[in-house]
């Protein structure tokens, strides 16, 4: 489990780690016996559950198939038990349940406030499984969202507020053909920051919110500056300076590291998108890297029901 990353599996020590109330609620709502009744309901011929003597690779493949591919979940279980007559997913939680399950089996019309097991609503459950609200909140709600964590060290809750996004402001995602581990990207960050750097980023966040709403070129250029993580992570991304410079020269308002990297995110006017895409692709080619670069649009609708997919079928 621990080699698959936190996007798939979260591990905590039964005695040495602390648990929030919502984490205990997830454990009480699930458990191995109840979880395996779903996750191992239909093991195909040719698959064998790993034993204590099985190799690490055999265990990795099994866990990936079980929790990422839904390879052992029966169609009847999905149809009869995960979805009730109102379309809301009745999620059976086990220790390795993934956020993808929440997104895949939610609802035809998501009610993020509807209560599930132990009083958790859909939004709370998704955040609990992911560990933070950054990704699941906009995925569930749609659009650009600001998630503020309240009481982060004790029974955390989250205040979700929408951020207006100018309709002609286009995000471009550039994904180079190499991997950068989140652990490595975190290790280069300092444990403490100068006060002026924290003030710098805090003040720029307010400007960024207005810049996204108005698409003011000068506001966007200034607001996208950062002193907290980008100066430290740039060296981990080959060609960063060249790609950044090429995007700006082609008309981008600014370029930032997406998450921990190595993907880069540029903000442009939609009329400049094609030129910026070509410039970023070419800049990475010049340093010996291929990349996938494309313009994106904001999904304003949020999560909807899609049919379960079984890659092993």
Describe the structure in brief:
By secondary structure, the chain is α+β, with helices and mostly antiparallel strands. The protein is 38% helix and 12% strand.
Task: Give a description of the structure.
The chain has helices at 21-29, 32-39, 56-68, 75-82, 99-104, 122-130, 136-141, 182-187, 195-214, 217-223, 230-233, 240-249, 273-285; strands at residues 144-150, 157-163, 169-176, 254-257, 264-269, 291-295. It has a four-stranded antiparallel β-sheet, covered by helices on one side. The chain has a two-stranded antiparallel ribbon with strand order 1-2. It has 313 residues and is α+β, with helices and mostly antiparallel strands. The chain contains 13 helices and six strands. Helix 9 runs antiparallel to helix 10 and helix 12 runs antiparallel to helix 13. Helix content is 38%, strand content 12%. The longest helix has 20 residues, at 195-214.
Task: Indicate the multimeric state.
Answer: single chain
How much helicity do the residues have?
Answer: 25-40%
Number of helices, where a helix is a run of at least 4 consecutive DSSP H or I residues? 13
Low-confidence stretches: 76-109, 307-313
What do the pLDDT scores average to?
A: 76
């Amino acid at each position: 489990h621990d080699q698959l990353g936190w996007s798939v599996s979260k591990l905590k020590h039964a005695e040495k780690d602390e648990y929030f109330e919502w984490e205990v609620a997830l454990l009480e709502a699930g458990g191995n016996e109840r979880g395996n009744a779903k996750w191992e309901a239909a093991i195909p011929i040719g698959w064998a559950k790993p034993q204590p003597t099985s190799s690490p690779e055999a265990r990795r493949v099994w866990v990936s198939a079980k929790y990422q591919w839904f390879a052992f979940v029966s169609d009847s279980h999905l149809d009869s038990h995960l979805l009730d007559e109102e379309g809301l997913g009745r999620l059976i939680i086990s220790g390795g349940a993934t956020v993808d399950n929440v997104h895949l089996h939610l609802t035809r019309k998501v009610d993020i406030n509807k209560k599930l097991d132990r009083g958790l609503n859909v939004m709370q459950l998704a955040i609990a499984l992911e560990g933070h609200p950054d990704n699941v909140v906009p995925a569930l709600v749609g659009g650009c969202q600001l998630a503020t964590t309240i009481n982060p060290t004790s029974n955390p809750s989250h205040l979700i507020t929408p951020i207006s996004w100018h309709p002609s402001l286009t995000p471009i995602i550039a994904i180079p053909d190499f991997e950068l581990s989140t652990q490595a990207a975190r290790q280069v960050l300092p444990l403490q920051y100068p006060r002026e750097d924290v003030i710098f980023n805090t003040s720029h966040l307010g400007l960024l919110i207005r810049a996204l709403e108005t698409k003011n070129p000068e506001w966007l250029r200034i607001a996208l500056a950062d002193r907290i993580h980008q100066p430290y992570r740039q060296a981990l991304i080959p060609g960063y300076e060249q790609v950044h410079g090429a995007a700006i020269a082609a008309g981008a308002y600014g370029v930032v590291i997406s998450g921990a990297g190595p993907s880069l995110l540029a903000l442009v006017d939609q009329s400049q998108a094609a030129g910026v895409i070509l410039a970023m692709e070419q800049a990475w080619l010049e340093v010996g890297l291929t990349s996938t670069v494309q313009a994106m649009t904001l999904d304003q609708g949020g999560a909807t029901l899609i049919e379960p997919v079984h890659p092993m079928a």
